[in-house]
Amino acid sequence: MTIGQHKFEYEVLEGWEQLPEGWSFTEVAGVAVDSSDRVYVFCRGEHPLIVFDREGKFLNAWGEGIFTVPHGIFIDHRDHVFLVDCGDHTIREFDTNGTLLNTIGNVHQSSDTGFAEDVSPVTHAGGPFNRVTNCAVRPDGSMYVSDGYGNARVHKFDPQGTLEFSWGEPGSGPGQFNLPHAIAVDSAGTVYVGDRENSRVQLFSPEGEYRTSWTFLNRPDDIFIDEQDNVYVAELGFKSGVGPSVHYCLMTEPPAGHDPIAAVSVCDPDGNVQARIGGPEEVLPGNFIAPHGLCADSRGDLYVGEVVLASGAIARLAPLPAQAFQKFLRSG
User: Fold this and answer.
1) Predicted local distance difference test score (pLDDT) of residue 89
2) pLDDT tens digits along 170-208
3) Of 214, 221, 263, nearest in space to 241 by CA
């Protein structure tokens, strides 16, 4: 459902995906669309990358045996597919057939940030990468990267994959991060960073200069910006992934005045909300449990993936069913 009076309206389309018999997404870390509106679903199941046409017909699958923890996906203007693996600290670039073109990052080698799972949170910023989360590629081939679960940093790479500069450090002030989880860039070059455990999106110049923050969002998990500069934000909310941890500084309660539900918000570049999808009954179609990745196609239809295992939602909701992927038709 869509809540409130907004510019855009959406209707959930149940049963869109035509998976082969016996297949499952398990959970969906990310989703992206190429120039032909083919939909690429990045999963944490047996088949990591599953491709559909815009009508939901299964086209292809690849990536088996490559990824440790699938996390983010971005498709650039050349239809190159960038897949972010936060488990082995890499970003891999593929063509649409699954041929590996390039790898950024050192496989299974993390940078020094003081982070140690089950021991210590991030204590200082480091270089690329430590549990990298997402990337955004510009038309000139340069790339911005959010880094990540084990870091508090944004990195800028040139088109050849050489690091140009980085910014950020642990904290909650302007330009500081507590789990930079998502990143996107609009047509003016403004960089949007989903600073998840500070429950905000921070906006920066192309050079990393802080501009402003959107603080009305609930733990932003992913950001997608379309060709009209509409900004789509997946909000994890405060029902999933909020358990105690010695190595993550998680928010456990929403800021004052925030609605704790998981949702998707669509905003203009000034932060005005154009649509908000989601409701309190999280298992109902059109609502969300743990939205983690999203994108829109050329018609404005919306695709949202959810991490129903990693967030703890399956255990919390059992025996109720938990969806991993939904499509929404845009009607306004």
Assistant:
1) 98
2) 999 999 999 999 999 999 999 999 999 999 999 999 999
3) 221
Nearest-angstrom CA–CA distance, 251 and 29: 21
What sections of the chain are H helices per DSSP? 313-317
Whether 79 contacts 61, CB under 8 Å: no
The reported pTM is: 0.96
Residue 308 token pair = 């129903």
Identify each DSSP E strand in 152-209 by its residue range: 153-157, 163-167, 180-185, 191-195, 200-204
In this structure, which long-range contacts are made by residues 37-43, counting pairs with CB atoms below 8 Å and at least 24 apart in sequence?
37/297, 37/298, 37/299, 38/96, 39/297, 39/303, 40/73, 40/75, 40/81, 41/17, 41/303, 41/305, 41/325, 42/70, 42/71, 42/72, 42/73, 42/83, 42/293, 42/305, 43/70, 43/324
Give the residue carrying structure tokens 């409701």. Answer: 279
Q: Give pLDDT tens digits for 27-65.
A: 999 999 999 999 999 999 999 999 999 999 999 999 999
What does residue 157 show for φ and ψ, rounded to 5 degrees?
Answer: -115, 145
Residue 315: Cβ within 10 Å count: 10
Give the pLDDT confidence score for residue 168 in this predicted structure. 98
CA distance 86 to 90: 7
